[in-house]
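This section describes the prediction task in plain terms. A model, or a person checking by hand, is given the sequence of a single protein chain and must write out its three-dimensional structure as a string of tokens. No templates, partner chains or ligands are provided. The sample shown here is typical of the held-out split.
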Amino acid sequence: MKLLYEGKAKKIYNSDQSDQVIIEFKDDATAFNGLKKDSLDGKGKINLKFTRYFFDLLHSHGIKSHVVSFLDETTLKAKKVDIFQIELVVRNYAAGSICKRLGFEKGIKFSPPMVELFLKDDSLGDPLLCKSHLKYMNLIAEEDLLFIEKQALKINDILIECLDSKGITLVDYKLEFGKAQDGEILLADEISPDNCRFWVKGTMESLDKDVYREDKGDLVQSYGRLLEILGI
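The expected answer:
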């Protein structure tokens, strides 16, 4: 296989079909735009388990993703998509950067959920976007933005219902979408504790990458505990 792209958490290879790629989940853990980095044995396998669990759940509710099939413990086959250079962050509770940027008290509930848009560009620090930025930068068509925002909120409802029944609070999470060669917009990337915040219900105990960001314990053990809670 030919390596097409390597990011902080995944490698993307070509496949035997021109409209599909192979995605390998790496064991790397990063934070603060790669300033903190480690390799943690088994992390890639664990994140693929989460992604399979959540993408299968969303698929059962009519949310289409780029996933074609899961190949082994660390790789999947996906449709080739042109990723929008926009990251959507859906926030149900205040945590992380929004507390630092705007002074929200950690744990404050947002009702309805807040949706923020960020430019997908590590070299610029993934800055916050407003609708005027989108227009002048020609990042996405207005109708496509409306579609992915609607999809993000639908995903939020599905995930909250699932996680609440397991005793987990969905604090916030990041989503990426892309457009396939036939023009269909699909959910892409992954859904795992790497790009979500999960708290034990009724507490602010983290079962996500904040464990690594804030040096609060063993990340792989924390992710393993969440796997057990979800019954994965």
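For orientation: The chain has six helices and 14 strands.
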